[in-house]
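--- STAGE predict ---
source: upstream dedup step, 1 unique chain passed
mode: sequence only
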Amino acid sequence: MKRADRYKYITEWFQANMPAAQSELHYKNPYELLVAVILSAQCTDKRVNMTTPALFERFPTVKAMSESTAEEIYTYIKSISYPNNKAKNLLGMSRMVMSEFNGEIPSDIDALQRLPGVGRKTANVMGVVLYNKSVMPVDTHVFRVAARLGLTVGAKTPLQSEMQLEKYFPADILPVAHHWLILHGRYVCLARKPKCGECGLKPWCKYYETEQKGRENIGV
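--- STAGE serialize ---
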């Protein structure tokens, strides 16, 4: 199967079965989303959503957070992975937003990456979720699912995966395609025990094809 055909069939399946895919993080504005995405690194969205209500009650604005300390921020996020580093990053982010961006979360991808705690993936998530930009944030779910489906070939790094996905998905599809892949990886195409039996993408999945051939070769 040609890669263009694989993208076509998989896109059509997602459009039919997951048309309104969106972020599962809870937020009300760009500041809240940025904080939530920073906290979500190597942590589940569920845990982040349990943590942010009290955090945002104490720090309802980026200005309020900038006037705090890393030690205080830590007390609100200590159940999150790597709370010490993230508390320092949140404080640094909020202070830079106040000092260099007039208290407004920047919309530019490159400007976002200047903020403490904001790497390429986080900046791309902001671009996709808030501004519908044609970029592809690649986390562990997206990286795994794209490789298994055959959407990426030989990608060794998230950046290589990102470049291939941005090349083959139509630009207007990229924002929702990110959510398709991440949600499919979160609930169906699990890392250790993918739920192939209930996956509607089996007909176009390279991983499933390989697994089936392996089972046939050993007579299962």
